[in-house]
């Protein structure tokens, strides 16, 4: 027989712990993080440009991180709003992880920022699995992408606190089947709010800012079914360690991880 | 493809477990196999993970270790009408009975290392049991 370690440890435990710690630290600083996810070209940057501009007009202290594999084009676009903006270059990585956001928060985020918008890498698969420490996760889908997108990317849409339909001004021209899209969203994330937006004609402008400010003011966010795990383990697995080594002292986070619902980033 | 990042996270955690086993003896054991539970809704492709795992293990105590994955089917329950159903893929998370949104996910988002088998040694020793998550 060989030696076996019964590990029962979430693979993403380190990321999730880092995210939870960041969320708590940001809360203590009075900052709410908003994580924006979509496929490439859905209009994250255009929407964010408009929301940052509105925030500046209203005197709301906002900042933005924008992630791409390469180029600083998006940061340059967003910086035109006058808000503090930083480009995160992932050097080929397809998603952000909480530690990457953390390093920017520590080194750059201006004190007194109420809302930190994080424009994730354009990708609906990988970023969906990584909690960054956000309190509001927003998923965008443009009308050109197909009504079944929420079914094809159920983790992304299933964990959203808010869904924004973008480029709504051309919905008629491209034959966007809105009822089918709404049904697909409801199948994977029943109860989530869906808002139509158009950066071109201003439809829905300011909605993202309002929702984020509501969270900043303490409003409850939608709890997606996918984040509502019914499992109640009650931490029954903290048996003693046969070897009596100072496990809990050497690895203080391991114990804490058991109390963190790694999939539930709603508060 | 974030399976590479997932594989690296698995390797890091197994290396930490190996280092704990080595406490006092100095020699970290090498892993022979790693068993994972992967939920149907976890957003991880098992084949891509297996490919990445081999690469991520190179030069570590996991070099040559086998990865076994067990798929956990998605299952949900309606808190209102108390029925439960397999979510399927893509998942149906509104209640098929009452169409309500009072759903709880019973299973399907697992992404968890359940067991590591080490190369040497004599007997079964559950060593570093950690609190269960998810």
TrEMBL record, chain A:
Pfam families per UniProt: cobW (PF02492)
Domain named CobW/HypB/UreG nucleotide-binding: residues: 35-195
Name this protein carries in UniProt: Hydrogenase nickel incorporation protein HypB
GO molecular function, one term: GTPase activity
GO BP terms, alphabetized: protein maturation
Keyword annotations of the record: GTP-binding, Hydrolase, Metal-binding, Nickel, Nucleotide-binding, Zinc
Matches recorded under InterPro entries: CobW/HypB/UreG_nucleotide-bd, Hyd_mat_HypB, P-loop_NTPase
Automatic annotation (TrEMBL), chain B:
InterPro entries in UniProt: HypA/HybF
Chain residues that bind Ni(2+): 2
Domain of life: Bacteria
Keywords assigned: Metal-binding, Nickel, Zinc
Gene Ontology biological-process annotations: protein maturation
Pfam families in the record: HypA (PF01155)
Positions that bind Zn(2+): 78, 81, 95, 98
The keyword Glycoprotein is assigned to this record: no
Molecular function via GO: nickel cation binding; zinc ion binding
HAMAP family listed in its UniProt record: HypA_HybF (MF_00213)
Record family assignment: Belongs to the HypA/HybF family.
Function noted in UniProt: Involved in the maturation of [NiFe] hydrogenases. Required for nickel insertion into the metal center of the hydrogenase.
Record's protein name: Hydrogenase maturation factor HypA
